Amino acid sequence: MTDLPGRVLIVDDHPVVLYGLRFLFEQDARYIICGEAADSLSAREQAEMLQPDFVILDLVLGGRDGIELLQDLTAIVPSARILVYSSQNEWRFARRTIQAGAKGYVAKSEGLAVVGRALDVIAAGETFISEAVRQRLVDAFETNVVDPRQTSIDQLSNRELQVLRMIGEGSSSRDIANALKLSIKTVGTYCERIKVKLQLESLRDLEELARDHVLGRHPR
User: Which residues in the chain are classed under CATH 3.40.50.2300?
Assistant: First the structure.
């Protein structure tokens, strides 16, 4: 980093999180908040206008996943280093977000101090993931053992995973279609694909597994 403070765009719609991040950066002169966005549209607009050095991004804004937004921000501001700060399952989403262009992932269950450390790591040009996830990746590589509880959902596409989460949160097919700007028929197609990939027999099975996914329980 230069002697100038790193300019940070925060993309999050949770007031408590925003308050905590503001407090964090008030205590650290190496970084300064240059903008805040609570939805994907304003996030894109501010990223293009402000050209921040860093983006702290929540994966869920108003009920929608942020993988697509992450990809868009990477294209809008290629030089920005994006840190995902989210309540989504870290083991499942850290890999997806880094593949989509993020430079780090911090679970919201971690303290704010971890956000500061993560920014330091990505500012140095490295990738940040928690030690717990790093160790699981190492263990899986060394033992060549794959956890079957994870592989079933890991084979879903980002959009399928997004639909699964929305089902688990109680959204109807019409709700999902409206939120994602899809037809109800297309949502139904995604549901059928999910059922096939996860070997589910009925819509009820799909809804039960989706609720387990949202609650952080392992699939059957």
Answer: 6-135
Single out the residue of 12, 16, 10 nearest to residue 33, CA to CA.
10
CA distance 4 to 100: 28
Q: What is the pTM of this model?
A: 0.71
The secondary structure element, H or E, covering residue 87 is none
Vertex 78 angle, CA 76 and 81, to 5°:
110
CA–CA distance, 77 with 54 (Å, rounded to integer): 10
CATH topology of domain 6-135: Rossmann fold (3.40.50)
Residue 220 has pLDDT above 50, yes or no: no
Q: What is the mean pLDDT of the chain?
A: 85
Coil, helix or strand for 82? strand
141 three-class SS: helix
Class of domain 148-214: mainly alpha
